[in-house]
Design the sequence.
């Protein structure tokens, strides 16, 4: 069995053994076993509980350094036909193929010492917990001191993992069906946060003396009505999304509810605008509570920062695409209100996320699966080698930027979220 065949088998193994964030132990084991077999002389460094990285030879001696990032975790999707029956995890976001692509690229760079032709060093960084879910478990990990951030890249930033690097390249599955094998650049993503609004009223008998109560559920409903009208005031160009849902409360058919909790995400592609809209949501909640004589407690939980793909780095992808004929279509500039913690990484250094097709079904859906692993694990890594060669020939360090963890932390704190 050659290395490409082993990578395909490993990728299928990860697909068959999906794991939620910070618990990717099987995935970590099979990947590290492969790395020990292929490049036993290279040191694997651990971080962020289940994350790990390795540097190609002489990477630190080069004038600048690339980190090639792959994500390890699965999504909670218990309706998927390949889900874990215990945890409900399923690989419906394609991260398992990111791992296979990274390994295929690594093998190609090691062959004939191709990495020596690059003017920059290359590290492969396998990051846990991209999906923002299983939050109760992550809170337990945080309470015991295992992690500080729910997102894997944010945790890695906190641990200093990305400090040696000057720029970043990631890959990601393109959702949907494509008639030809395709790639994508400049697909910006929203950032997001979670807001929780706990409305408090006064309980009373709903039939005997409802006038003695203050209905927290009515406050919550009034708040949702306010949000519906608020949408008219939002800038369409900012890709704002929120999806309020009733989480829990003290309800009964013959009881005036004294507590009702609404949770919502808030997504947008602009940090300042996210802060502005968050304040508008808070005002709407406070107004709804005040209107009916109640009160509201507001909690903010930070998710990820918006991801603005680095247009300069993307030019090298376009150049590489123009010089090959196996990938038939290049899509670009299709922003999405989806989010990823690559946004946090792009805050501290230039980053791009190159998309690839080869799937069918709805991403995060019950029918998502690969249809062309050969193109994903062979054609696409070959293309990435060409991309790196283009970067090596023409990249100018003047286009790089660097922000520190302190700057990152201060930006997060602008949302009213504090971290130690």
Sequence:
């Amino acid at each position: 069995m050659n290395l490409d065949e082993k990578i395909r088998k490993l990728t299928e193994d990860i697909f068959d053994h999906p794991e939620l964030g910070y618990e990717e132990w099987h995935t970590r084991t099979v990947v590290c076993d492969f790395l020990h077999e292929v490049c036993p002389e290279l040191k694997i460094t651990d971080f962020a509980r289940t994350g790990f990285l390795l540097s190609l030879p002489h990477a630190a001696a080069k004038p600048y350094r690339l980190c090639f990032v792959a994500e390890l975790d699965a999504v909670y999707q218990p309706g998927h036909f390949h889900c874990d029956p215990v945890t409900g995890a399923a690989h419906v976001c394609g991260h398992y193929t990111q791992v296979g692509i990274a390994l295929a690229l690594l093998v190609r760079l090691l062959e004939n010492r191709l990495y020596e032709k690059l003017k920059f060093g290359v590290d492969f960084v396998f990051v846990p917990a991209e999906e923002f879910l299983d939050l109760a478990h992550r809170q337990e990990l945080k309470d015991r001191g295992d992690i500080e951030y729910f997102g894997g890249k944010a945790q890695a930033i906190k641990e200093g993992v990305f400090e040696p690097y000057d720029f970043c390249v990631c890959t990601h599955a393109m959702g949907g069906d494509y008639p030809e094998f395709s790639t994508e650049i400049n697909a910006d993503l929203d950032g997001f946060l979670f807001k929780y609004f706990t409305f408090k009223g006064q309980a009373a008998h709903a039939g005997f003396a409802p006038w003695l109560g203050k209905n927290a559920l009515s406050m919550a409903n009034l708040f949702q009505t306010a949000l519906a009208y608020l949408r008219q005031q939002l800038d369409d160009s900012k890709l704002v999304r929120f999806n309020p849902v009733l989480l829990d409360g003290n309800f009964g058919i013959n009881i005036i509810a004294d507590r009702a909790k609404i949770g919502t995400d808030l997504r947008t592609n602009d940090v300042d605008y996210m802060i502005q809209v968050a304040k508008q949501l808070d005002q709407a909640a406070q107004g709804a509570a005040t209107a009916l004589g109640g009160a509201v407690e507001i909690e903010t939980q930070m998710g990820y920062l918006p991801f603005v793909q680095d247009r300069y780095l993307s030019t090298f992808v376009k150049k590489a695409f123009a010089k090959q004929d196996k990938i038939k279509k290049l899509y670009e500039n299709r922003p999405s209100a989806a989010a990823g913690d690559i946004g946090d990484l792009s805050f501290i250094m230039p980053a791009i996320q190159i998309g690839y097709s080869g799937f069918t079904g709805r991403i995060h859906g019950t029918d998502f699966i690969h249809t062309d692993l050969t193109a994903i694990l062979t054609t696409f890594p070959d293309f990435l080698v060409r991309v790196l060669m283009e970067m090596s020939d023409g990249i100018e360090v003047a286009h790089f930027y660097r922000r520190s963890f302190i700057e990152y932390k201060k930006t997060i704190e602008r949302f009213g979220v504090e971290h130690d």
